[in-house]
Design brief:
alpha/beta; globular
């Protein structure tokens, strides 16, 4: 395997439901950035999403097809952060990589991740039953993405801490322009006037709709449609801020679940320990999260 020392790669990692979709749509506007298409190739890691695991060695020639245009390549495969194989694979192939690590208070992150799986029925697709949060938390495929220290320790074996920009995703809502400027400085690219107002940027669960049978048929057709035909149509819809899958004819509303103290009691203790350890090794302040979690635990 020959390292590509001259290729500028950035990986947008960690964690699911921590604002990376929003961030990818912002950064994708910058002319000096070539974002992966799709946003999450799930190629280098053997974590191919929440459930799917494939340990086969990547076919690196195929990886090139996920990028087009010049500029810094950003791979948005968020599940790579918790994947035990990803740090070594990236270090061997792209040793000069940098990482944007988006994190969220881990109990609310876990709950939001769980709710997304329940909404989309993805657990059923993989013959699992995550209908009960307590049982779902026992499944490492949910839990691993919230064990920030466990994951970070693996990455720091291959990359120095200065290769990481760690972001509290709450700041995407509170201080979006300031955070984007920090990212531009980290990537050493020119400041750009981004569009922060587009409604297409939203990926909140309250606005999520789930495809019904007709919607799933359209998705199936889309998957087998050649990219040369599909891409112009998709780009035109994005520019017009049209999400066809939100149409009531082909989608349904999600179930209503609400985060409460019960969820904090289920996973709060172990996540507080992880947060303290993460702060020790990364120097990233987690005290606000620890204080909140402890206040919710009976």
């Amino acid at each position: 395997m020959n390292p590509q020392n001259n290729t500028s790669h950035v990986f947008l990692i960690g964690a699911p439901k921590a604002g990376t979709t929003w961030l990818s749509k912002i950064l994708g506007q910058h002319p000096e950035i070539s974002f992966s298409n799709p946003k999450e190739p799930n190629f280098i890691a053997f974590h191919k999403g929440t459930f799917k695991r494939i340990k086969d060695e990547p076919i690196w020639e195929k990886y090139e097809t996920y990028f087009s245009g010049a500029g810094i390549r950003i791979d948005g495969s968020i599940h790579a952060f918790a994947c035990p194989l990803a740090p070594e694979r990236i270090a061997e192939r792209f040793p000069n990589s940098r990482f944007i690590l988006c994190l969220r208070e881990p109990v609310s992150r876990t709950f939001s991740h769980w709710k997304m799986i329940i909404d989309t029925l993805e657990d059923k697709k993989y013959n699992c039953d995550w209908s009960d949060f307590k049982l779902a938390w026992q499944d490492d495929r949910l839990r691993c993405d919230s064990l920030y220290a466990t994951s970070m320790e693996r990455w720091l074996k291959y990359f120095s801490l200065d290769k990481f920009l760690i972001i509290n995703s709450k700041l995407f809502r509170n201080k979006p322009q300031s955070i984007i400027r920090d990212i531009e400085e980290f990537l050493k690219i020119d400041n750009y006037e981004f569009n922060f107002d587009s409604r297409i940027l939203s990926n909140e669960s309250k606005s999520r709709r789930i495809p019904n049978l007709l919607g799933r048929m359209l998705i199936g057709i889309s998957k087998i449609t050649p990219k040369i035909i599909k891409s112009p149509i998709a780009n035109a819809l994005i520019k017009r801020e049209i999400n066809i899958y939100s149409n009531p004819i082909i989608s349904r509303k999600t179930q209503e679940f609400y985060l409460n103290d019960q969820h904090y009691n289920i996973c709060g203790d172990i996540l507080c320990k992880e947060l303290q350890k993460f702060e020790d090794i990364s120097k990233f302040d987690t005290s606000e999260w620890i204080k909140l979690i402890k206040s919710k635990i009976n």
